Amino acid sequence: MKPTIRIAAAVIIRADGKALLVRKRGTKAFMQPGGKIEPGESPASALLRELIEEIGLHVSVEDLRLLGYFEAPAANEPGHTVSADVFLIECGNAQISSSAEIEELCWIDPEKPGDIAMAELTEHHILPAYLQKRAGG
Length: 137
What we know:
Elements: E1 4-14, E2 19-24, E3 34-36, H1 43-55, E4 65-73, E5 81-92, E6 102-108, H2 120-134
Parallel strand pairs: 1-5
Antiparallel strand pairs: 1-3, 2-6, 4-5
């Protein structure tokens, strides 16, 4: 059995419907912002902490809507599985910028993300679940 990394992540949607993806320094795959859940921390608390650290986004627990729980092979830690509590956040036109370990931000059309390398969790689980929810499914 592969070691599991527990994370909390967010599908952040701005006013024009585009979704935020981030790429951590020294990696190739884009993914949702978020990070590891520390011992004793709830997924929501971990996500709020990570969003401030990584992209300077301040939101409250009331702004989080649970999208679901997903698992996939970890993009940046070979031999590990990542299990994620994923929340949906509509950020309007909030100012977002990269900090901490985030090297690059990009806003994508969730239906047509273009030719970018994405983590398996993002490409095959999270974005399809978001599109299904958006469509009313």
